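G., the chain you wanted modeled:
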Amino acid sequence: MIDLSPLYALVGQWLPFDCLQARFMQQAFIGLLLLSPMAAVMGIMVVNFRMAFFADAISHSAFAGVALGLLFAVDPNWSMPAFGLLVGLGIMIMQRSSGLSNDTVIGVFFSAMVAFGLAIVSRDRSLARDLQRFLYGDILTISDGQIIFLILLFIVLIGFQIKSYNHLLYIGLNPTLAKAHRIRVALHQYIFTALLSLIVMFAVQAMGVLLVTAMLIVPAAAARNLAGSAGSMFWWALGISLSSSLSGLLLSAQPWARTATGATIILIACGWFLLSLLPAALRRERRE
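Predicted structure as tokens:
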């Protein structure tokens, strides 16, 4: 495995906070530095495409993925994203092949995954204790292997966004028209779904099932209030997500705070959203 010690050492040198001198804090910092931009980029698409329920369904499939991993003695940190990926692609296949509405398909999968996870846990009550850390999340437990995977996922996502960002916007507005302009709609949708599923699953480990959707939605929603164009919305979402994540990590580690990292990050992001309501209201008044 690649030795990430030099990378962690740079964090301790460049950011001379006492709390960042511990190895697990340096790992958490790098993990959020990779995860936050990906969540921001995908969050824009989730908001624009009205896919919040989809992200919620993927996050709740974490229960089943973790339970299966524990049941078959597979590391839940890897069984969970693998299962989430299968669920995400399954939802997309069902949406494209059935005549049902998107909300109906997602609702069926959502219900099935939660029930499946609870059914597995009910067979072995000892599994419930292990599931709790995924319910609330803990970025401080991120491993070197997960960070390496996040680096690879980050590279793939950046490449996909550079090549397909405009195509995705086009598909979101009108898939039929996009297909008429020779955009490979199905391929873009499947790749986007796969990447979103993996990012959501890794965000579950940082934020927990209860807050993972907020990591995608809140920075993008605040950016939409502040931005005047699609391009500026991208940069606003990126800045809000990064500042919320990194400041949340540092604040939660302070002796006077000692709060859950995921909850602190989301509270700061929600603070950004509240601040963003003022310029949005001023713009509406000017139009009227």
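DSSP finds 13 helices and no strands in the chain.

Shout if anything looks off.
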